[in-house]
User: Which sequence fits this backbone?
C-alpha cells in the first residue's frame, strides 16, 4: 500500500472510532455500536479492548431484551 492509502485508512479508522465511541457513550445500551467498535479493535489486534466491547455489546443486548420499560408497565 502507498503512504497515501495508509494515511486515508488511518483517517477513516479514526473517524469510525470517534463515531462509534460517541454512540457508545451517548447510549450505553446501543449493542451494535459496542459490537462494531469491538470488531474494529479486533482488526487492529487490540484483543483486550475488543473483548471488553464485545462483553458490553452482550450486556447491552441482554438489557435491551429483558429489562422492562417502567413506563410501559404502568400503562
Assistant:
Amino acid at each position: 500500500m502507498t503512504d497515501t492509502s495508509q494515511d486515508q485508512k488511518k483517517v477513516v479508522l479514526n473517524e469510525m472510532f470517534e463515531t462509534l465511541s460517541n454512540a457508545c457513550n451517548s447510549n450505553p445500551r446501543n449493542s451494535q455500536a459496542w459490537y462494531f467498535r469491538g470488531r474494529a479493535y479486533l482488526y487492529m489486534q487490540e484483543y483486550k479492548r475488543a473483548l471488553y466491547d464485545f462483553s458490553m455489546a452482550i450486556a447491552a443486548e441482554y438489557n435491551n431484551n429483558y429489562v422492562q420499560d417502567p413506563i410501559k408497565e404502568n400503562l
In short: The first helix runs from residue 3 to 26. The CA atoms of residues 24 and 33 lie 6 Å apart. The chain has one domain: 3-73.
